[in-house]
Hints:
alpha+beta, Alpha-Beta Plaits, elongated, 6-stranded mixed beta sheet
Amino acid sequence: MLKGFIINNYRIDTFLIWGHGLKHLFDIIDILKKDYEILFVQRVKVKNIKKFVKKVYSFDYAPYWHLKDKTNYLLTTPKEVCFIFIKNVDSDEDYLDVGEFRHKESLKIKRTKELIRDKFNPYENGIRTHHHVIHATDNEAQSDYLLSYIGYDGIEYINQKNIFNIPRYLTYQNYSFIKINPTELYASILEGESWDKYKVTVKALIETPHYLGLKKDMKIYNNYIQKFLGGALKEFYDVEKFKKLSNNFKYLEKPYNSNYIIVTKKDDKFIILDGIHRSCNLIDKEEIIVCQVN
């Protein structure tokens, strides 16, 4: 049995956007977020595209030699890809193909994949080519493999839980709950040219693109997301998700009574590790409870 697997009413699937499809990345994300919960996004630069393609398809039901001719086009595409890990609820599974290639697959994923290919695959003489911009997993075992391949602890990385909902990407030794004024909050913000060319600076919460987007112009926030998503910024957020959170927002009320804003203290500043979007909605409060970790 693959480590980390637990019984859920969903499965973890992965969409992989190939280099020639990245110009459509945010249009593809707009399609995916309608039917799936996007967990996180990661862009990867590929040194050896041939070896990478073989790794991606190593868990496919058809042997690689059978797929080789179908994937040769990828050898000429840009050496950059984007993984989008999603929660697939009501996956609509069924058995497809015949003989040695017969396997169980999510029909929901298959429909999404074909929709995206219809819209964004290259066309020649009005006919869609097989130069697919997107690949998708057939089962959770393939997602487990891809997560491990890019440096995570497989499905266990996504399924892990803790007592006060600290995000999976944070580690800590000690924690305590403290009361602070929200104006004391700072956040680590990305600045630079693109997802792979940036630096991290610490800014007061009211100077962040999140706060400025919410209070002044959402274009500020949207530009920030579009520039850095998939690089240092992996957790998925967009304008719609931020607006939905902000409407009638109530901190630490059921069913989110253990979703604390997580901070650490450095150079006498409380720096947000998780919860910058929630914090933007609390700036006018006199005092809030946060979880401080170290």
